[in-house]
Amino acid sequence: MSAQNSPESTAATARAVTMEKLVSLCKRRGLVFPTSDIYGGLGSTFDYGPLGVELKRNVKEAWWRDMVQGRSDVIGLDSAILQHPRTWEASGHLQNFTDPLVDCKSCKQRFRADHLEGTRCPACGGELTAARQFNLMFKTFMGPLEDTANTVYLRPETAQGIFANFANVIDTQRVKLPFGVAQTGKSFRNEITPGNFIFRTREFEQMEMEFFVQPEAIEEQRWFDYWVAERFNWYVKYGIARDHLRMRPHAQDELSHYSRGTTDVEFLYPFGWGELEGIARRGSYDLDQHAQFSGKDLTYFDEEAKARYRPWVIEPAAGVDRAMLAFMIDAYDEDVVEDETRIVLRLDPRLAPIKVAVYPLLRKGGHPEKAQEIRATLSRYVTTAYDQAGSIGRRYRRQDEIGTPLGVTVDHQTIEDGTVTIRDRDTTEQQRVPIEGLVGTVIERIGWYR
Ligand code: ATP
Fold first, then answer.
1. 144: cis peptide before it, omega within 30°?
2. What spatial distance separates the first Cα and last Cα of the chain, rounded to whole Å?
3. What residue owns the CA closest to ligand 1's atom 11?
4. For ligand 1, which residues put their CB under 6 angstroms from it?
5. What's the rounded Cα separation, in Å, for the pair 332 and 259?
6. Ligand 1 centre from 321 Cα, in Å?
7. What is the helix (H) or strand (E) element at residue 281, kind and residue range?
């Protein structure tokens, strides 16, 4: 079903958000800036501003807590961006990590052949060249000599660093199948057609986990189904509407060179359905290849079966930037408060860049001092903001727009009886609570601290 006629697309049109509004909010409030803005930008590359970096850290933190910290069967890793060049021979990326590139003979624009609907140039209708395969890996040189012997690649996925460390991990950790190794980090792909804001860029961040299982069909299927459901529900847990998500199994002819089967979790972006995360069945492909190319033993010893084998792998591979984009899109809302339209990012409190804003009602009477003191205490546990500029209504709106879930107002009563009001972003309701115990109240309402 295409995005145009699916029932879900009506849900998208009913949303207040458009890419234009979101991009503008991101720039205006310091979430995402175009890279090298002062030099006119660097095609489809973005920097994360003071608020964006917090949101992005929270997305990664949420993933880490759920995929590593909260589980007894997954451990973490942080491998280098530069790997031995043999890695990419073994993994098949040097040979196969290509996209078909076509040029328009008239207007000279470039396109990915597999993204085109017809056989003519979508921009001017001109004739297209035959497709040639274009490798997506960025190259650079290690050391001062710029020759082929010193060529290294910026990793196009984090996964290979996990496979290359398989022996290190099983030799040093007490792991037993099934178990996973997870990592987050930058990846680079020289995409032919980046675009749609932070959806497709050439430098991006991934959150990947390789889950090793016994090489046995029923076991593998069970874990594949488990991870597809788990990852789908993860997005729902942090605020994505269920009807903006779908699972899409890949057709045989679109599978990556390493995959025996892949299901994507797709999200309904304002520009249509697109991938958020791919869950791939990599079999023992990667360990087999690295064993062959390195000559090292990459088997696992199964104590119970008294057998050695190379496990099979299920890989949930997500993008940090895409997840962040999806969370912002689904959080974006406009409503009317006190006869005025307000923009409000209804982010899950755990993801919100700033958890609590503290406002002194007046610039005198001890309000600022008390407010600063409260802010300092809260800052030891959560991210905070302090705002004393303008009317209190304006200040609330500034925080609503960036998704700050809680506001604490210090007023004359605070000075008298040691209470403050807590305002809720979504309902705008206020509640008076004692300062004593405020930290606990806040952490409980946020759901974690950071
Ligand atoms: P696509 O089909 O959109 O090019 P892919 O199938 O090549 O993506 P994977 O190799 O499965 O992507 O990578 C896992 C995840 O990494 C993707 O689901 C996406 O979230 C993220 N990702 C991949 N390429 C990019 C990119 N160029 N920009 C931002 N995120 C990306």
1. no
2. 41
3. 278
4. 157, 189, 191, 200-201, 204, 206, 275-278, 317-319, 321-322
5. 36
6. 10
7. strand 272-283
Measured on CA atoms in the order 239, 244, 248, 253, is the torsion positive or negative?
negative
Residue 32 is inside which H or E element, if any?
Answer: strand 32-34
Residue type for position 351: L
**Alpha-carbon dihedral 6, 7, 11, 12, rounded to 10 degrees:** 10
Distance CA 207, CA 247 (A): 19
Fold for domain 354-446? Rossmann fold (3.40.50)
Q: Provide the pLDDT confidence category of residue 231 given band limits of 50, 70 and 90.
A: very high
Candidates 222, 186, 188; CA nearest to 79 is: 186
Ligand 1 atom closest to the Cα of residue 201 is 28
Residue 445 carries which side chain, given as an amino acid letter?
R
pTM for the full predicted model: 0.94
Beta strands in 93-149 (DSSP E): 98-103, 110-112, 132-135, 139-141
Q: Are 364 and 378 in contact (CB under 8 A)?
A: no
Tens-place pLDDT, residues 277-302: 999 999 999 999 999 999 999 999 99
pLDDT score of 383 more than 70: yes
Question: Are 138 and 152 in contact, with CB atoms under 8 Å apart?
Answer: no
Q: Whose CA is nearest to atom 19 of ligand 1?
A: 319
Probe residue for ligand 1, chosen from 44, 135, 204 as the CB with the greatest number of ligand atoms within 8 Å: 204
Residue 390 phi/psi, 5-degree rounding, is 85, -175
Atom of ligand 1 nearest to the CA of 280: 11
Pairing of strands 74-76, 179-188: parallel
For residue 3, what pLDDT band results from cuts at 50, 70 and 90?
very low
The dotted CATH code for 3-82+153-328 is 3.30.930.10
Q: What is the mean pLDDT of the chain?
A: 94
Q: Which atom of ligand 1 is nearest to the CA of 189?
A: 27
Confirm if 441 and 425 have CB atoms less than 8 A apart.
Answer: no
CA of 152 to the centre of ligand 1 (A): 22
Q: What is the token pair recorded at 388?
A: 């004393």
Q: How many residues does the chain have?
A: 450
> Which of 59, 201, 206 to mutate to test ligand 1, by most ligand atoms within 8 A of the CB atom?
206
User: Mind listing the pLDDT tens digit for each residue in 399-431?
Assistant: 999 999 999 999 999 999 999 999 999 999 999
Closest CA to 159 of 251, 66, 97: 97
Query: Per-domain residue ranges for the chain?
Result: 3-82+153-328, 354-446
